[in-house]
Amino acid sequence: MRQRGVGLTAAGFVIAMVLTAVLVRVDPASELPGLSQAAPREIPVAVVGPDPDAATMRDALNGPSEHAVAARVSPSEKAAEASLRDRAVSAVVVMGDGADHELWVASGGGTAEAEKVEEVVSRTLAVSGQTVRVVDRIPVAERDPHGVGPFRLGTAWAILGVAFAALLGLVFGARSASASLVVVRFAGLAAGAVVAGLGGAFLSEVVVRRIDAPFLALAGLGALVVLGVGSMTLALIAWFGRLGLALAIVGLVIGIPGAIGAWPLTPMPVVWPTLLAWLPPGAATWAVRGLAYFDGVDVERVLLMMMLWTMIGLTATSVAATAVEPRRALRDLHPSLRAHPVGATIGAFVLTGILVVTPALPAFTATDLDPPVTVTCQTTRTPTNVKELNERIETVSDVDGFVGGDVGASTFLADGRGLFVFGDTIRRTDYSSRTMVRNSMLIFDKTCAGLVQRRDRDAVIPDRADGVGYWPMSVAAVDLGRDLVGVMAQRVEQTGDDLFGFRNLGPAVAIFQVEPGRAPVLQRVVDLGEDDPDTSRPVWGAAATVVGDSVYLYGTSRTSDGGFGWAVSVAKTRLVDVTDQSKWRYWDGERWQRDAKQAAQLIGQDGGVSQTFSVFREGKRWYALSKRADFVGTDLVVWTAPGPTGPFTPAPPVAKIPSTASELRYMPLAHPQLFPEKGTMVVSVSRNTKDGDVQADPSLYRPEFLRITLP
């Protein structure tokens, strides 16, 4: 009988080896529906570049709600490459000087992850007009272009471990009659494991030639995987019988997607896909990749895992052998557990979980995935008219630290929320970093208002490394499934401590992406042109109007002898191309053309507009709204035109907004979507004290609203 059992076992081992050899030649990811649709989550990515660009890129990558990647800033290219080779990150974004960057990937660590990172980074950069060139720093073997060789081999060894243990249980019974017979059973399993390790390594390196790794190291890994998985399967069978074998098989089946890199459970918290990836198929695949592509980095974790499984399996099987029963194929629960089947089932799952959680712990992402920006909701009753809005502005102390701000352009998002951007912003004194920043952003809906805050609590468009900041002028939004918001700003350099101690160095654009109900996430800041304080060069974006997916960008310019006010020119482009001035077109008085120097003046400088103003349309008519002659003027004037290129004709003043001996009133802006009424427009007027000291009474640094009748 014993000789027959040995013969059956040997025959079963041979059949299992043959079937496994077939598995090494087949790609389950292409045969099983859905497994090729990989969607990994929170893939660790390093970002290398100068501040604040690298932090902006990190926040842009971490911003989407699906959290496909978990980006962090790396101090240098050398450190980032070391992290890639140490398997601490799966990709590295190396930022270039302009709009072209490099993405380093390691397809040897998993093609699904490499492809997903490339997709996410390319999509994120495309939003703001940037491109990326992919460089595979650790590529897969030439004969294994899809990188499935390690998966096939690792999964084959895991299957062999379960198959060998199942054969031993079927032939010799679920439990041995004594501890000495357990040793014999494990000796047979060890012999099969050695053969499987050598055979798998030989097939993969010599026959199929898809893995290039030290032969003996690879064979030893395979033997230990088969032995570890088989030992735990024997223990599960000894204590739980058919239920134990079923648990082992389930572990194999649900571990295959994790080993491939496909996450059927993507909507679940990341803990579950991570654990599934460290079931035997995934753990074995990780180790084979480590030997083949990463010089053995982190393989010891899998080796220790399998040694632990072997010791626990041997001990648990030996303890189970103390109860002598008639030899039968796969009996039910161990006699000591039959009285408590529910507890036995729970115990099996708990034991299996502990065995998997321990080696999986280092795999959990350590990247700080706190939202790159937040919007806290400060409950408020929504004003329904201009009077209520002004009363609210005068009486509220602050909005999450926002006390007062300059200018204040607005737009509405596709989800119905309103968005305001401000220039120099005063914040509560408990902001330990800076109580005044160059810009800020407010979001409001029907129930609450909130300040958009970066993690560092600095300006929402961060200053350049040299201290140059950004003053928003206009804002444009296009619904592309997610709102694409362009904030046109002017670059500002501080030159003194007085009210006018600054100079404008030229325009810039900040691109934000906004998912419904979520905070705007900065994607990129682009300076348009070289730093140049020459005011005769148009500052594009002083006003902006969206039509479809295009945006008309109005520029203001002035010369020293041209009179008070600013002249107006116009350019147009698609909002998705706004960062690339080569795609802009400029109106020369007759047609749209490429040369910005040929842009015609739509409104002259003498008696012209303020440096920042508004252009909007109602019906078929276009309007420009501004304080005539900038700071020295008193008249709020509306210019009318049949189209975006003019000609713009001034109408009689619609209101007086003079400055006083103590207060400046300047840069009125139109808000077409705020309390709309046909034939009228809600206008905000910026306010400031003439000495610039508004800290004593910040309410003087808040806009005042009025409604005008359009001509």
TrEMBL record:
Keywords of the record: Membrane, Transmembrane, Transmembrane helix
Domain DUF4185: start-end pairs: 544-683
Transmembrane segments: 7-26, 155-174, 181-203, 215-238, 245-265, 302-324, 344-364
UniProt entry tagged with the keyword Acyltransferase: no
InterPro entries cross-referenced by the UniProt entry: DUF4185
Protein name according to UniProt: DUF4185 domain-containing protein
